[in-house]
Amino acid sequence: MIRIPKKGTPERARLIAEHKACIESMKGVPGCTILRCETPGDITKVSGGIHEDILLNRVLLRMRAAMPKNGKRKLVVICTEPDKSWRIGRLSGVRGVPPTFATDKLYDNEQDPQHDIFLMRLDEMEEVDGMPEQFNEGWKRRDDHWTVT
Amino acid sequence: MGAMRLTGYADAFGVNPGKTIKFYVNCDGPKKYKTEVMKMINGDTNPRGPGLVERLISADCNGEYNGRKQVIHSGSYGYVTDRPQLNLESFTMQCWIWPTTPKTHPKYWRHGAQGLMGKWCNGKGYGLFINENGYIELRVNDKKVATDVQVRDHAWHFIAATYDAETGEAVLYHEPQIVYALDPSIPPVKSKLGVKIQNAAGVPFTVACYTGSLDDGPLAKSSKPAGIVMAGHYNGKIDSPRLCKKALSRQDIETMKLGAQPGLTERRHCGPNGDLAGVIVGSWDFSDGINTLVGRDHGPYVYDLEIVNCPTRAMTGHNFSGHNFDWKHAPKEYGAIHFHDDDVDDARWQVDFEWEVPADQPSACYAVKLTTAEGDEDYIPFWVVPECGKATAKIAFMVPTISYMAYANEHLANNAGGAELLVYRVPIMQDQNMFLSEHREYGGSIYDTHTDGSGICLSSRLRPILSIRPKYDHFLMQAPWQYPADLHLICWLETMGYKYDCITDEDVTYDGLARLEQYNVIITGSHPEHNTGPQLDALHNYTQRGGRLMYMGADAWYWVHSFHPAYDGLGRGIVTEMRRCESGIRTWRADPGEYYHQGTGELGGMWRYRGRYLHSVAGTGMSSEGFDISSYYTRTYESNDTRVSWAFEGIGYDEKLGNFGFVGGGAAGTELDIVDTMLGSPPHTLVVATSAGRHTEAYLLVMEDYGFSQQGIDGTQHPRVRSDIAYHETPNGGACFAFSSIAFCGSLPWNNCDNNISKLVGNVLTRFAKDGPLPPPPKEAFKHRGRADYEPASLKTAE
């Protein structure tokens, strides 16, 4: 399994820059992926991002699949006013307990929180995420309630 | 962000002109709310589009109403109203259980003791429980006797408890069906309680809950029975509950596992033997009446349980042998009901206002808009549908109401953390998602799991369904989905000036061909995924007789649905059922032996595995899905065939078709259909445009199309990850045009409906809507074609 690039490495800086560029180009698209639109907001021609940077591709897949450590739950985006305002939240992991806001930052578009969550996850994930040294009893059972697995 | 203090629902999706539709509203806080009937045109608030378009309709129900709070008492259970024979001095209670959440998180929405069976309320009576620590517990009045071993989840256990009034002794048995090597033994727990049971008047005998309170307040009116509020809803299966009026020996308890035996040849009593026949109070057999809302009592008093909130039946029992998968063939192995604390079949709210729809009210999409002075807002959509036989247009929009019900109140953005892999980004939650994440009593969708993690296979429309709302973006695409996405199509029909009727899935299911044959053309919604058999029959019969079908989306005709017959008395299509069986795109997977519907007894799962290939209905079937961004189409040489070239009048051969749109940014996106003559597409089908080769890595081939988990199935690599726009003729001057992408309708309103997707659909609709059969294909088009065999263009060139 590949390792999550450490802070201060050129690989990490490259991933962040590419992710940011993709997110910027996706503004205006009713949808989002980590690819660059040749014309911002237009899906006619897309390239780069996960299709051309294999490390970025793999790190993002790991982040999407992984449960954060230390009892934390997954991050989500919460729309606080349709088409106007968004915030980053964190799921509770308990049925009937709603997500809570994870940061104070307000966003004026729905794409920018994706990039900030990418940055938060780079900080939260350990280099050896998902490797044997992280074994715990939860590996033996589905210790979550995810319906799509 | 609002707290959604206004929610509501109607008693019908479709209402005929001249008939009355009732509305139920929860207004939790504000003193007043305003109602306005709106004709719904567009529900997408994307700033690049036309925005919300609604037109106020003059209606005598428009006005201001007093607000009142109404709540949903979710959670399934069975009850028998208080009867003298249920008021006991001594007793034996016994049952099999398969608990799914014996111990819950302290913050779990219904954390606490769960009732298994008994007649207990507020420290009086008798009852069997799983207590908040996950131990089996007997309660006699306020005295408690518990085991000291947590009951194992997702495993069968035999549970029994006796109480002898004369000796004052209680005995509690917890006997797991499976005992692993390192499991501690669980001896019976004995305790001298020495109390006289206080049988409180009016407290019902319950299974899968206990009586929380007898309450004559307004919020208890929506409980069942009204005024009795249940608590301690149990999550899991219960099989073969028995109640006797004597403290039985362990030997007699074993015999009582047989239950009443009314079928004995020399019948002299209810069985299982003479002595026990004399002490049986109730002996319930859940394998009897699986398609009903009754838990049959085979005992002498016939105290059938009324089953509330439609728990899942046709569930394998403790004795499932695995030889028969159809409950109708081995009913005795299906004696379990799976109860859930978030089951809901009917919110049972009080009516707040009604609208007698004028006899001349045009058929269309409507909604009651609810607002308060404080800024609260909700919409209750419904459709005015002409009476069968009284069509008012040549075009009908078939509103995919079963699919709306399947997606009703979905929680995937909240619960399905793994859905990030599906959507290839972090989900965005809307106000509705936030409300539902806290209000589990509103029930989930058929895409969700219950709060205990088991799959939801039933969905009722008698509850507020917050996903059937305008201004609602779905996490799958950060864009409208289902109802608001179908309004893209309505917006286009209205802008282009087409006259159309609205008919619902229920209308087609119950009225069959008579409902469809009134129209020259039927237009589907963007994602009619969930269908009943009678509906598919009607569509086939319609196109066979010359009807024209415009399939405006993708992933249709996919899952087997049936309406639960026990609710027929309340209206059409109240509760729909679906099972996610061995294949198909499944957010949960049914357990072995649980593939057959409890309502109709038919095999659930994909229509494909019932031998009804999805491609056979309109020419294309689902091949892949991806939810990051959409793409566009280009024409194929088959689009120049004179059989279909009329559809492209005014569209250049090299044009990019639909590289714009409000769902994913393009016409080809989300879920995609292709032509496959091996899977039901007629061999004369023409592929007129395709999006092949343009999809991202997020798009993956459907699992029913491959046998191994393997690489190479994504949109950057696999040739079947594409959408095909396709056309084929049907007999007697009929035809099908399949646009084969859920995102497709999202391109129609782009640039005020002035675009090449709009042009293409307009050409097709105008031709299909004309009276009489379509012009016949040229003579040379009539020739034998194989299914697997065809003549490739490369061979033609070689000649």
Write a short abstract of this structure.
With 149 residues, chain A is an alpha+beta fold. Chain A has four helices and five strands. Chain B folds into three domains: 6-72 and 348-394, Immunoglobulin-like; 77-339, Jelly Rolls; 401-781, no CATH class.
Provide a descriptive summary of the structure in words.
The complex is a heterodimer of chains A (149) and B (799). With 149 residues, chain A is α+β, with helices and mostly antiparallel strands. Chain A has one domain. Chain A has 4 helices and 5 strands. Chain A has helices spanning 10-26, 49-52, 54-65, 112-124, and strands at 36-39, 42-47, 75-81, 85-90, 100-101. In chain A, a hairpin with a 2-residue loop joins strand 1 and strand 2 (42-47). In chain A, helix 1 (10-26) packs antiparallel against helix 4. Residues 144-149 of chain A have low confidence and may be disordered. By secondary structure, chain B is an alpha+beta fold. Chain B has 3 domains: 6-72 and 348-394, Sandwich (Immunoglobulin-like), CATH 2.60.40; 77-339, Jelly Rolls (Sandwich), CATH 2.60.120.200; 401-781, no CATH class. Chain B is 12% helix and 28% strand. Chain B contains 14 helices and 43 strands. In chain B, helix 8 (505-511) crosses helix 10 (533-544). Chain B is globular and about 95 Å long. Chains A and B meet through strand 2, helix 3, strand 3 and helix 4 of A and helix 4, helix 5, strand 29, helix 6 and strand 37 of B.
Low-confidence stretches of chain A: 144-149
Mean pLDDT of chain B: 96
Strand order of the largest sheet of chain B: 12-11-10-9-16-7-22-21
Whole-angstrom Rg of chain A = 16 Å
Number of domains of chain A: 1
Low confidence ranges of chain B: none
| First-to-last CA distance of chain B | 68 Å
| Percentage of residues assigned to helices of chain B | 10-25%
Residue share in β-strands of chain B: 25-35%
Largest interface: A-B, 53 and 66 residues
